[in-house]
Amino acid sequence: MIALNIENLKGQIAITAEKAGRSPEDVKLVAVSKRFPVSAIHQAYQCGQLHFGENYIQELQGKVSEIPPGAKVHFIGHLQSNKAKIAAEHCHMIETVDSAKLAKKLNNHLLKLEKKLKILVQVNIGGDQNKAGIAPEAAEKLLDELAELDHLEVCGLMTIPPVESDTAKTRGHFVRLRKLGDKLYNKGFFTTRDTVEFSMGMSQDFPIAIEEGATIIRVGTAIFGQRPPLL
Ligand SMILES: *Cc1c(COP(=O)(O)O)cnc(C)c1O
Predict the structure, then answer these.
(1) Which residue's C-alpha comes closest to atom 6 of ligand 1?
(2) Ligand 1 centroid distance, CA of 32 (Å)
(3) Are 41 and 68 in contact (CB under 8 A)?
(4) Residues within a 6 A CB radius of ligand 1
(5) Atom 14 of ligand 1, residue of closest alpha carbon
(6) Whose CA is nearest to atom 5 of ligand 1?
(7) Among the four residues 85, 91, 142, 159, which has the most C-beta atoms within 10 Å?
(8) Is the CB of residue 188 less than 8 Å from the CB of residue 148?
(9) Pocket test for ligand 1, best of 6, 32, 124 (most atoms within 8 A of CB)
(10) Which residues, 6 or more positions from 59, have their beta carbon under 8 angstroms from its beta carbon?
């Protein structure tokens, strides 16, 4: 089932990207394996899936020794600064940096680990009170602070927009994130100057996100099926 889902998804990504005049290789698929057992990660990995998304530090800690060494973990959940060390050790990218405090903690741990880490700044693009992320207006100030932290590679922006019944509204959120990222890029921000990463789009809305410039999509249900409930 997982193999078939990945194959279908790749087809959809390719068709959507090409229709939008983009190259399918410019859209990275992160398979969100939260609440699924490591065996699911192994199944996907055997199909060539390399990037995985995890939301909970404790769950990640439990899984990490059994995750295939070649797999790359994106942390996509809310990260408390007191858990920064674990994330810094085990992740390929932290997509949810939303404070200078967290960023400094990460940087300090990375200094000791003698490594660099890719991060994204999480933006609360819909101004949703229940969602994490910084306000769009505050992004520039945070990026200024992050520029001082040598062990962080600030690659772009991530968002989880509010759930909308109207797809035009969802598209509007993605467009706003993209415009914000482009504006900041033009001001000289982001470590990787060849591209800005935009992590946006999940199982329900990834085609719209690809049309609006997503370079990373985070897909769980459409690969692994219905998630088991939280324990
Ligand atoms: C769970 C989760 C996803 C995946 O959602 P699906 O609807 O299952 O594709 C993507 N991004 C984040 C931040 C998540 O928490």
Answers:
(1) 220
(2) 6
(3) yes
(4) 32, 34, 55, 76, 160, 202-204, 218-222
(5) 76
(6) 220
(7) 159
(8) no
(9) 32
(10) 34, 35
Closest ligand 1 atom to the C-alpha of 221?
8
Instruction: Encode pLDDT of 59-104 as tens digits.
Output: 999 999 999 999 999 999 999 999 999 999 999 999 999 999 999 9
Asked if 199 contacts 214 with a C-beta cutoff of 8 angstroms, the reply is yes
Concatenating the DSSP letter of every residue in 97-164 gives: E--HHHHHHHHHHHHHHT--EEEEEEB-TT--TTS-SB-GGGHHHHHHHHTT-TTEEEEEEE--PPP-
C-beta separation of 216 from 197 below 8 A: yes
Tokens standing for residue 157: 């922006």
Whole-model pTM over 0.85: yes
Which residue of 202, 203, 216, 217 sits with most ligand 1 atoms within 8 Å of its CB, as the best mutation to test the pocket?
A: 202
Q: What's the 155 CA to ligand 1 centre distance in angstroms?
A: 20
Distance 9 CA to ligand 1 centre (A): 15
152 Cα–ligand 1 center, Å: 24
